[in-house]
Specification:
mainly alpha
Length: about 210
């Protein structure tokens, strides 16, 4: 049972998903921290073809209507923003992000505990169904033997048994056969649930 629980916690996709959710929540905290201490950079650019423009904004040899001397135009703008006063916004965001991490950890732990419980329940369900099948099979063998003995005694003239006794034995044997079929069905369903908890193929044998 202990090995089964360990296998489930190592291979069930649910556990992997909870770990990813935890990492994602922690990344949000790191992102908020980075916004507090690191400056923000933005880079923009403009590119085009324009007519030649000599001189400056106060005096130029060219007119606005001149359309000659075309050449490339490139403009690049780099901005850096360093937050100094955020009026509590980043602090609130960091608190919220940390609360999200705590909540995600609680949720992940709950899901892991639920998976552990489901694995234990499925394990004992398989064990109980198989034990019931074994007991019913032993009873069936005993009733097969009893049925043969009753038939043999019916052939004797001084026998104290009659057809009613034989019918009762056959009826009980039939009920035992139904128990075996039911136990096998429950064992199959429990095995699938057990394999699902362990992250295995549903039709893998229970061992």
């Amino acid at each position: 049972l202990h090995q089964a629980v360990i296998h489930a916690l190592e291979n069930n996709p649910l556990v992997e998903r909870t770990q990813l959710n935890r990492k994602q929540a922690k990344l949000i905290v790191d992102e908020v921290k980075a916004q507090i201490f690191l400056p923000k950079f933005s880079l923009s650019g403009e590119l085009g073809i324009v007519p030649e423009a000599r001189g400056d904004v106060f005096q130029s040899q060219d007119k606005q209507t001149d359309l000659d001397g075309f050449g490339p135009f490139v403009k690049i703008r780099l901005e850096m923003l360093q937050p100094v006063f955020t009026f509590g916004r980043t602090g609130s965001a960091l608190t919220a992000a940390r609360s999200a991490v705590t909540l995600q950890n609680i949720k992940s732990n709950t899901e892991v505990e639920k998976l552990t419980l489901e694995t234990i329940k499925a394990y004992w369900a398989v064990s109980a169904a198989r034990e019931a099948e074994d007991i019913a099979s032993d009873l069936q063998k005993n009733y097969d033997k009893l049925q043969r003995e009753v038939k043999e005694r019916l052939e004797s003239e001084d026998s104290e048994v009659d057809d009613t006794d034989l019918l009762e034995v056959k009826s009980n044997r039939y009920q035992i056969q139904e128990m075996i079929i039911k136990s096998r069905s429950e064992s199959g369903l429990a095995t699938k649930a057990f394999n699902f908890a362990l992250g295995r193929d549903l039709f893998d044998p229970f061992n």
